[in-house]
């Protein structure tokens, strides 16, 4: 406890017989002066302090050097228990959670551990709420049924999404660009990590497997926010290291045979069958081609964190194909989750590969001669017992490939292109063109946090 003492000059003690009797007005003035400059401290004062008084003039009322103040008022929702929980969550984030937000980068760890909390406390309460929500989710990974952590995770995230959406609606500026990006990234992280506690979408009453579409929507939201704020983020000392830590995105779109080429077999027949518009046919074909190219790239360097890039780089059309449960899109998704097997020792991805692949496979007919053979590689990876997968099972010597491949530095140019695409979009309802997609996704995300991440019967309590 820090006690700030006022500078009070204590006069030397004098004999009372030498002290003239002051007037009543002088006495009152002296008393008020001492009282006005008494320091304020919190908590109980020591017993010997309460009896300490200033030397007094004859006839005056003794004025204590220390004055114990009234306890500061607290809101109805702020309790000592809540404050201790927030301290616990903040401590956990800075000492443990921050280390798990980057695969292998000491620079990023310091940014998440020190710089991001400082930014949250200085300018963005919604970012602070997001940090606490993610920290609560991390603690919950060791105590899945802890009701306090469940409530904290959902309550803080609901509060963050609400305020974040309001801030985004008011407009993106240089002052809030970094906080908006970091919050979007943590919302996407929360959406992904929450899947380990939910086997299925609570809104799906069929009893079957539901696709983790919230993963894609939240990462698309990050992409939209980046595009909307890139004019400021491109010089950010916080954001650029995060972006540049990603492996260089070198996609092979030449059409040459690759490991996942079989996933493109028959695509012309599919687009001709389902798409009547030539433009839509081209969009669908390109969505598949791009997604498969990302798979091939990540397959070469799986232990660098490259597979995580898939969620943010696939097109919106590919997500629509997933929502329609097109077999080709599902097979691509199964292969993507197979890539995540390499990251199975990360707490928020533990068991994800096996669970999701088995769920996707359950959507297919085992007698399907067209697609069942293409699911065999993801199945082999899902059932493999070790995180380190030998090249003969993986299908490529990933260790040698990683040594010969540039590991970072390729995402800035990719984002600049994306930003130009958003900037060229026509205005929608008078809104800033690059802001509309970001706002749309964050609104969807706020509802998603309540409808998908919140278990039935669990009340979201207000966060003070």
TrEMBL record:
Biased composition (Polar residues): 50-59
GO MF, one annotated term: DNA-binding transcription factor activity, RNA polymerase II-specific
Start and end residues of each stretch annotated as Disordered: 14-78
Domain of life: Eukaryota
Ranges of biased composition (kind: Low complexity): 21-40
Annotated PANTHER family: STEROL REGULATORY ELEMENT-BINDING PROTEIN ECM22 (PTHR47657), ZN(2)-C6 FUNGAL-TYPE DOMAIN-CONTAINING PROTEIN (PTHR47657:SF14)
Name of this chain's protein: Transcription factor domain-containing protein
């Amino acid at each position: 406890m820090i006690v700030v003492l006022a500078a009070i000059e204590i006069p030397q003690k004098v004999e009372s017989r030498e002290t003239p009797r002051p007037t009543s007005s002088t006495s009152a003035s002296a008393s008020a002066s001492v009282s006005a400059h008494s320091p304020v401290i919190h908590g109980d004062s020591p017993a010997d302090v309460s009896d300490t008084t200033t030397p007094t003039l004859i006839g005056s009322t003794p004025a204590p050097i220390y004055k114990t103040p009234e306890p500061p008022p607290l809101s109805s929702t702020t309790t000592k228990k809540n404050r201790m929980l927030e301290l616990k969550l903040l401590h956990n984030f800075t000492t443990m959670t921050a280390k798990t937000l980057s695969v292998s980068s000491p620079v990023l760890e310091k940014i998440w551990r020190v710089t991001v909390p400082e930014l949250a406390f200085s300018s963005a309460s919604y970012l602070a709420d997001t940090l606490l929500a993610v920290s609560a989710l991390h603690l919950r990974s060791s105590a899945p049924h802890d009701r306090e952590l469940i409530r904290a995770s959902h309550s803080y995230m609901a509060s963050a999404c609400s305020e974040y959406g309001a801030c985004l609606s008011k407009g993106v500026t240089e002052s809030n660009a970094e906080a908006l990006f970091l919050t979007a990234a943590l919302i996407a992280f929360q959406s992904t990590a929450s899947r380990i506690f939910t086997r299925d979408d609570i809104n799906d009453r069929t009893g079957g497997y539901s696709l983790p579409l919230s993963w894609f929507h939240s990462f698309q939201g990050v992409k939209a926010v980046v595009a909307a704020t890139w004019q400021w983020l491109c010089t950010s000392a916080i954001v650029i290291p995060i972006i540049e830590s990603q492996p260089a995105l070198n996609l092979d779109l030449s059409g040459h045979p690759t490991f996942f080429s079989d996933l493109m077999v028959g695509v012309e027949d599919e687009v001709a069958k389902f798409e009547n518009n030539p433009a839509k046919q081209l969009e669908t074909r390109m969505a598949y081609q791009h997604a498969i190219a990302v798979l091939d790239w990540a397959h070469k360097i799986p232990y660098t964190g490259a597979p995580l890039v898939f969620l943010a780089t696939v097109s919106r059309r590919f997500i629509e194909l997933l929502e329609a449960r097109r077999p080709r899109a599902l097979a691509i998704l199964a292969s993507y989750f197979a890539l995540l097997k390499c990251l199975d020792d990360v707490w928020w991805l533990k068991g994800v590969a096996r669970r999701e692949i088995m769920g996707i496979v359950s959507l297919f007919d085992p007698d399907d001669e067209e697609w069942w053979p293409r699911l065999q590689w993801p199945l082999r990876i899902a059932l493999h017992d070790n995180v380190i997968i030998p090249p003969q099972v993986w299908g490529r010597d990933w260790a040698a490939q990683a040594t010969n491949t540039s590991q970072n530095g390729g995402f800035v140019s990719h984002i600049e292109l994306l930003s130009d695409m958003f900037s060229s979009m026509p205005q929608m309802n008078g809104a800033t063109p690059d802001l509309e997609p970001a706002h749309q996704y964050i609104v969807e995300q706020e509802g998603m946090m309540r409808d998908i991440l919140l278990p039935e019967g669990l009340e979201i309590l207000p966060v003070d």
